[in-house]
Amino acid sequence: MPQSVVCYQNQNYGKLKKACLESRKLFEDPLFPAASETLFYQRSAPVGTVWKRPKEICSNPQLFVNGISSRDLHQGSLGNCWLVAAASCLATEPSVWKKVIPNHKEQDWDPRHPEKYAGIFHFCFWRFGHWVDVTIDDRLPTVNGQLIFCSSTDVNEFWCALLEKAYAKLNGCYETLEGGNTAEALVDFTGGISEPICLEEEKVSEDLEKKKKLFKSLMKAHSRASLISCSIRPAPGEELESQMSCGLVKGHAYGVTDIKRIQLGTGLLAFFQAKKLYMIRMRNPWGSTEWCGPWSDGSEEWKKVSRSEREKMGVTVRDDGEFWMSFDDFCRYFTDLVVCRRINTSLLSIHKTWVEALLFSEWSQSPDPWKNRSGGCSNNRETFLQNPQFTFDITSDQDSALICLQQEDRRANRKSGTGENLAMGFDVFKVEVNRKYRMHIHQGKVASSTYINSRSVFQRVELQQGKYVVIPTTFGPGESGNFLLRVFTDRTAKLRELSKNQPAPSCWSCCLGIPQLVSSVTLHSAAGLSLPGSGNELNVYAVIKCEGKQVRSKVYKGTSSPEFDLRGIFYRKRPQSPVKIEVWVKSWLRDTLLGHVSVPAAAGDMGKNEVLRLQSPRQGVTSGSILVEISSSTDLSAL
Fold this sequence. Notes:
By secondary structure, this protein is of the alpha+beta class. The protein folds into four domains: 5-179, no CATH class; 193-341, Alpha-Beta Complex (Cathepsin B, Chain A); 355-402 and 415-498, Sandwich (Jelly Rolls), CATH 2.60.120.380; 512-633, C2 domain (Immunoglobulin-like). The strands form seven sheets. Strands 15, 16, 17, 18, 19, 20 and 21 form a seven-stranded antiparallel β-sheet that branches. The chain has a six-stranded antiparallel β-sheet with strand order 9-14-10-11-12-13. α4 (81-90) runs parallel beside α8. The longest helix is centred in the middle third of the chain and has 16 residues, at 208-223. It is elongated, with a radius of gyration of 30 Å.
């Protein structure tokens, strides 16, 4: 079982099973009973519904028959293709399904020891930052002896039906699984982050380079146990799950089960005029209705490939809802793709690793602007900065940050009519490298996510070295809800929430003084830097100093015109003392001061830009100039 597991509804599988075995009674779940309310909340159960245990459906029930496979699952009468497609993906990755179906051998029926059977099973799902262990009994709804909902190709196999029941329990009942987002189920199965890719908007089918890049990315993701699903978005007015002439179904979730770049043998080169085939395999949760174009089951393309060649290529063709198609055709027909990445945080991995930081918080309303934490998106300029704010650091020269905002799941609230997700998103700002207090003025926005009423919103952002503030928001002001913020970076990001608006007076304030002025200083760039005898290619860095505190830039190599973009904020007790800016030349033995300048940064300077000439420590020598932006205020919460 995964570490740090929470028992759902305080039901401990081990204790419950032990009690059942001791009493020699099969488990009957009082919290998810064999009753109509477990099935539906808006409609009645089908006529003739009978709850049966697997042993009442077949003579030799098993969790798995000949192992677990993406071809096992068949969607039932429930409109939950999104979940079944995700489960198809799950079945392709042992490291994933063994976490979702813990101790599967111990849970399975053992014909040699029937006394160990207690009619109880459990499954693990990742929910809102925790692995949750869901315990169920094995009574399943049937009509005329047939399972109503998800079933397996083999009538003796029950892993998919029991998994679906556990997921239904987690979400309130079976009906709450009607209509959903494959990305959510993939995250629940993995604890990863789902990255949506819109093939249509990116026009991937029309751009060969984009297509190659996407194929390479998907192949790498699949090889590293990421789970992938895809769909075709219906046009406005088109019917959901309408079948196209090529056999594909619109508005229907497909699970991607394999991706291959196939090197063709010499005997096949003449047929396909190519040395390589770029192929993708998918599965329809219905277990039927397949692609009927090139490379579909029984197509002319496969007839040209002998059985031995297929085995050499590592592909199989069966009439079971699973099918191959070329990546060109895939990009031509499919509009949306979801890649659920299992972020690698292992220190021992040979692949790219990430450092994860996560924090829980909430959007909450208050009439007091200083306490309100539900200001809406940036369209609401007066209240936007009242939202929760989080700061994190990028310590590499440049780094990709993966940012995922997730709200608490509301699907279980559908019964009470409050199951709709909040529309949410986030903005990212670059701020002063020493900022400790909340932002009160809009700064340079470097990234913005889309706003959508999805359970999670993801954005991959390329960032330069520095400190950043991410502001998660609901689209409109006045909304309430809990959320989880996850940030993945190359190095430790020191993610933390900014809760204070300004420095608070301390018991030492009477002796040490209190801040009277706040100043934000941005050193944008320098030009014409020179040092006699050093040429024009300098290795330089900058320092901003104020009242014994300082911020320092990284070293910019081989330039006389660096773009510093160095920002510092200072709470000044002696406003008459100027802020000092120094530019240094980095050298092996001893750094050399190239030039300096003093900036008054007086109260009232708001967004003031100045080009200032650096003063050289050497008489009569010109060192260059810098571009500085200054904002100062006697209101300590103004910046």
